[in-house]
Amino acid sequence: xxxxxxxxxxxxxxxxxxxxxxxxxxxxxxxxxxxxxxxxxxxxxxxxxxxxxxxxxxxxxxxxxxxxxxxxxxxxxxxxxxxxxxxxxxxxxxxxxxxxxxxxxxxxxxxxxxxxxxxxxxxxxxxxxxxxxxxxxxxxxxxxxxxxxxxxxxxxxxxxxxxxxxxxxxxxxxxxxxxxxxxxxxxxxxxxxxxxxxxxxxxxxxxxxxxxxxxxxxxxxxxxxxxxxxxxxxxxxxxxxxxxxxxxxxxxxxxxxxxxxxxxxxxxxxxxxxxxxxxxxxxxxxxxxxxxxxxxxxxxxxxxxxxx
Amino acid sequence: xxxxxxxxxxxxxxxxxxxxxxxxxxxxxxxxxxxxxxxxxxxxxxxxxxxxxxxxxxxxxxxxxxxxxxxxxxxxxxxxxxxxxxxxxxxxxxxxxxxxxxxxxxxxxxxxxxxxxxxxxxxxxxxxxxxxxxxxxxxxxxxxxxxxxxxxxxxxxxxxxxxxxxxxxxxxxxxxxxxxxxxxxxxxxxxxxxxxxxxxxxxxxxxxxxxxxxxxxxxxxxxxxxxxxxxxxxxxxxxxxxxxxxxxxxxxx
Lengths: 308, 253
Ligand SMILES: Nc1ncnc2c1ncn2[C@@H]1O[C@H](COP(=O)(O)OP(=O)(O)O)[C@@H](O)[C@H]1O
Ligand SMILES: [Mg+2]
Fold this sequence. Notes:
The structure holds two protein chains of two kinds.
Chain A: E1 5-13, E2 19-28, E3 33-37, H1 44-52, E4 59-64, E5 67-68, H2 73-79, E6 80-83, H3 95-105, H4 112-121, H5 137-149, E7 155-159, H6 167-182, E8 186-191, H7 194-200, E9 203-208, E10 211-217, H8 218-225, E11 227-234, E12 251-253, E13 258-264, H9 272-281, E14 286-293, H10 296-307
Chain B: H1 3-19, H2 21-43, E1 49-50, E2 53-54, H3 55-86, H4 89-94, H5 99-128, H6 136-160, H7 164-180, H8 193-199, H9 203-216, H10 223-247
Antiparallel strand pairs in B: 1-2
Helix pairs in contact in B: 1-2, 1-5, 2-3, 2-5, 3-5, 3-6, 3-7, 3-9, 5-6, 6-9, 6-10, 9-10
Bound molecules: adenosine-5'-diphosphate and magnesium ion.
């Protein structure tokens, strides 16, 4: 299947000489939720801004639904809704007016029923006649989302959508995102919160210092790079790890009451069976046993460290 | 063409005028009336006629031009500067519209406002002094061309400015003096020969001269030169705007 967005060899150098994106190659599939994950200053906003037409591309080319973003900008931009990172709103406008304005800019005929639906989904309906300046930060964020959805886009960019947002909005927003995805909309969200990508995305791309370090199915990413910890709560205190267990690279913790075994889920063999056998031979008894998976955060920190 | 988008920008800007009616219409009308009272009565009692027209009537076309010039620039420059300042420009840049359509929306709205304003001032002046309108068509043409040209110029200033100060500085330091020295309140022929020559370097002289001709058939320079000059400024402004959009100057990094 043809990707809905295709970025090839994109390099962007700002006027000051700073290269914010280095030879980016990235395909976004139709209908997926793609999480672009990276620390502040990695180049996430720059990449989105170029695709949307706000920043001039440097070298390279980008197509959206097969159309070149420069040559066929009308076709590509019609498909895209953008929720920017900054809370940029027209303070003096009413919610209804500003959302309708966005629809008009995209050349779509008026459709009050659609605007009403969007405002209701975002719990903005009772605020529709209020001026934006009277709204809280979270409400303004909702207005920006409503503006982006006003023209029924096929692709939605959410640039750090939950930065400084309350729990309730976060829930509402994920609900809206899930419904959009169900209706076939492709969603690209950037974040530097791992949980967000972990919770929402189908695929994750990690960007750091202007380079895409890795793109992977989320589950695959977890499987490939995730390590797991097996923790054993011991029956009695152990002063040091017996030499017979050296090979397992165990860690002794909690003043000798806990043993931790770290294993790589990538391997076909985890080594757990041998470990348990060896423990029993060494006559080490345990009360409890549990495993925990390393979070995406650990993976991410490792990756970014490795790329530096 | 994305006509809906042009209309959306246009009506957005017009709605902004309605909200700020006092600023955009009432205050220029009041200041014109003040000019009228001060210059018309004070000076008019000494200079009774210029080129066979009563002084009060003589200054009307110049006063209209003065307001149209300054308000076109003010409206258009603010119109495009404001979204740049607040950041909402992101929406214009990412929408499926061309720069040409953006200009059409903003400049169209700014020019419309100036034309309405000019008409209101004209009607107001009619309450004070007798007015003749020898060539209504030419009058309308001059009014529209001036409004468009200076709205384009204002648009350029609004793109160039990177602070509210810069937004004010060109109208204040260049346009207002040029407009005052452009023969709003006197005929160029009343000046000593040297200053007559200097005045011919002032573009506003041509606008006011042509505009006044359409009222009273008196002019400091010939009609075709007046028209040619407006056309020339219009072309320069369009050229600069074309360049701005080609390079993304101040709009796109
Ligand atoms: N207009 C600009 N001019 C120069 N440098 C910029 C500009 N915008 C962003 N940058 C730089 O580019 C880098 C990437 O920024 P950005 O894309 O905003 O990162 P992110 O969204 O991942 O936090 C940062 O180092 C930032 O300082
Ligand atoms: Mg960013």
